[in-house]
């Protein structure tokens, strides 16, 4: 039964990896859209990102359920159940696949974090620019009123 749970876990991790990769591509597209000032594209990307995050949330719930089953079967408390511990108690091919998927997800999440930090900086820069333009516009309008 443990092998079945680990195979189920691998399937969920594969699905999560696929969605995380799509989130990464969406984040890269958001960078391009911000630089190009393409508001319509940004709206589309934010909508898609929201859908993907909903899918990740559902998969995370599935993953937690599988981890609880593995915990019950192995008598390892959920909070202590790590990929490393699971790989020690399953056949080598499953252990290898589990390590590989986990590593791939971590790599994508690192990339996603980097791109999101860049996007955050770009968004802040854009907002600062808009703020400066608004201040200048207000000053110009005030001058026009006085004249």
Could you list some keywords that capture this structure?
4 helices, 89% helix, mainly alpha, 147 residues
Structure description:
This protein is mainly alpha-helical and about 150 residues long. It has one domain (about 1-120). Helix content is about 90%, strand content about 0%. It has 4 helices and no strands. The chain has helices spanning about 1-35, 40-75, 85-90, 90-145. Helix 1 (about 1-35) runs antiparallel to helix 2 and helix 1 (about 1-35) packs parallel to helix 4 (about 90-145). It is elongated. The model has no long low-confidence stretch (mean pLDDT about 95).
Strand and helix map with partners:
Layout: H1 2-35, H2 39-74, H3 83-88, H4 92-146
H-E string: HHHH
Low-confidence stretches: none
Number of helices: 4
Give the averaged pLDDT, no decimals. Answer: 93
Main pleated-sheet profile? none
Rg on CA atoms, Å: 23 Å
Number of domains: 1
Q: Strand-residue fraction? A: under 5%
Helix vs. strand class: mainly alpha
Shape verdict: elongated
How many beta-strand segments? 0
Helix content: over 70%
What can be said about this structure in brief?
The protein has 147 residues and is mostly helical. It has helices spanning 2-35, 39-74, 83-88, 92-146.
